[in-house]
Write a structure and sequence with these properties.
single chain, alpha+beta, 5-stranded mixed beta sheet, 3-stranded antiparallel beta sheet, 16 helices, binds protoporphyrin IX containing FE
């Protein structure tokens, strides 16, 4: 694993290190610290603005919890690479996750447990596995098309993000667990509704200056408990189904058909160190980590394309030239959608759905001229340099063309962490890290790109987009609920006569 360390990080050793108390930063108030200055829907925007005001390293405090915030992409890459030894995910995340009644999975764990789980999960996400499950993705895309066809025929506006969440939940369930949940064609109390409560609650608690939920349970806390219980039931159901498939066909142990079967086979091996709790934790993690992130990115992409008609036209022309039967786009065809993939990377540069990553120092260390003591929380602001003209030409513009050529964005650049690096001077590729970086880079990134391309092939191959609207006609507002979502996007479609 290697990622490029941009030249700007190689600075001479500073004569004297600054301490937390010497850093600039917004004024912290007694007890709450800076919590009240952060709108829980848009803390990332405030932290980004503070980067402009206080520079690439500043301090802040949420309640008693002190944090350093960094915005310089080279420092961000340095921190993210220095895992698992130098930095971990925070103890607060682990504690709050567990308090919500959820078993821990890859996203939240650390140290040796993380290493073991990471190996297990990576094996399930290798491209050969994903390719084997491609037919499941084709089926989910067909269900999405049926849902949109119905809306088009009835002249109904589509709640874009909600539909895409159904698409991503169905995809993960099919691909990773071999389960057909079909939330796309089921109305009512579906799994996805329960999942949707979890991330906002996690986000609220992480940013809360006081752990009020430990003292009394509000109506929202009780609703959350019910949601978590439902999701845990669904997870247990996926596991039971997989176990009975494996009992009926024992050769699945040697040749697991999906991520869940691979995890169960690993857990059952003597001395594996993986128990059922960890398997459940990872089923839940895949559902959570794979849902909002991918759905929101596709929603942002459709929104940005609608606002850039020339790019939309080029994307549509590509789909129609490459995909012979839009009712069933093939693996090789999806692989050829280079411009659509470029649109995805450009969307993630401008609208990264994970605009903040939070880690914690495992020992005393330094960042530039700042001493970082053991236990310090470090929040990385992921979208400072990637939208700055100093680092990216015409940084504010949506120009997917900048991503064409010089290899796939998922496997190159500072955002990759695995595979070779194409050093493209002054390019967004080095700076934009939508999937994180280093050893804990998102293991689902190839799957996510595949899902995005499949959704776009379905949309542009089968429909004419009539409008993508926001409540106020402006660019959609951002709302952070662990993943950053566009607010209030509705889409109208007409079925494409072909
Ligand atoms: C556009 C879609 C996605 C984006 C932008 C995204 C982004 C991210 C980011 C920023 C991280 C943190 C990386 C770091 O700490 O350096 C992450 C971690 C993770 N993602 Fe994704 N993700 C996406 C889709 C998915 C999908 C589809 C899955 C799986 C089904 C997934 C599973 C995970 C897991 C398990 C982790 C934790 C990895 C670890 O801590 O070792 N993600 N993702």
């Amino acid at each position: 694993m290697d990622i490029e360390t941009p030249a700007s990080v190689v600075t001479p050793a500073p004569a004297r290190l600054r301490h937390y108390d010497e850093l600039p930063g917004p004024r912290a108030y007694p007890i709450v610290g800076n919590a009240l200055q952060l709108d829980s829907r848009t803390p990332h925007l405030q932290m980004q603005r503070w980067c402009d005001e206080y520079g690439p390293i500043y301090r802040m405090r949420i309640g008693k919890r002190r944090a350093m915030v960094i915005g310089d992409h080279a420092l961000v890459a340095q921190v993210l690479r220095d895992r698992p030894e130098g930095f971990r995910r925070t103890t607060s995340l682990e504690r709050i996750w567990a308090e919500m009644g959820m078993p821990l999975g890859l996203f939240a764990v650390n140290g040796e447990v993380w290493k073991r789980q990471r190996r297990m999960v990576m094996a399930g996400f290798d491209p050969a596995h994903v390719k084997r499950y491609f037919p499941a993705l084709q089926q989910v895309a067909a269900a999405l098309a049926r849902r949109w066809q119905k809306a088009a025929q009835q002249g109904q506006a589509i709640d874009l993000q909600a539909d895409l969440m159904r698409y991503t939940v169905d995809t993960i369930a099919g691909l990773a667990f071999g389960a057909e949940v079909n939330t796309l064609e089921t109305e009512g109390n579906v799994l996805q509704h329960h999942l949707d409560k979890i991330f906002p609650a996690l986000n609220r608690r992480l940013l809360s200056p006081l752990p009020t939920w430990r003292w009394w349970r509000s109506a929202a806390d009780r609703e959350l408990e019910l949601g978590v219980a439902e999701v845990n039931r669904a997870v247990a159901g996926f596991i039971a189904q997989a176990r009975s498939r494996m009992a009926a066909e024992p050769n699945r142990r040697e040749r697991p058909e999906n991520l869940l079967e691979a995890m169960l086979a690993a857990a059952d091996a003597p001395g594996s160190g993986i128990d059922d709790e960890q398997v459940s934790g990872n089923v839940l993690t895949m559902l959570l980590a794979g849902e909002d992130t991918t759905a929101n990115t596709i929603a942002w992409m459709i929104h940005l394309l609608w606002r850039h008609p020339a790019a939309l036209e080029r994307a549509r022309a590509e789909v129609r030239a490459v995909v012979a039967d839009p009712a069933c786009p093939g693996w090789d065809e999806i692989a050829k959608l280079d411009f659509i993939e470029a649109c995805a990377h450009e969307t993630m540069r401008l609208k990264p759905v994970a605009p903040l990553l939070v880690v914690q120092a495992l020992g005393d260390t330094t960042l530039a001229d700042v001493q970082v003591p053991k236990g310090m929380v470090v929040t990385t602001v992921m979208r400072r340099d990637s939208v700055s003209d100093q680092h990216v030409p015409r940084a504010a513009a949506f120009e997917p063309e900048r991503w064409l050529g010089a290899g796939s964005g998922a496997g190159s650049g500072a955002g990759a962490g695995e595979g070779s690096v194409a050093a493209v001077a002054g390019s967004a590729r080095r700076i934009s890290m939508p999937f994180g970086a280093g050893p804990r880079i998102c293991p689902g990134r190839y799957l996510a790109l595949l899902e995005m391309k499949m959704a776009m092939a379905t949309l542009l191959g089968r429909f004419e987009v009539q409008s993508v609207d926001t409540p106020d006609g402006q660019i959609a507002q951002e709302k952070l609920a662990f993943a950053m979502a566009p607010v209030g996007l509705t889409m109208r479609l007409r079925a494409h006569p072909r």
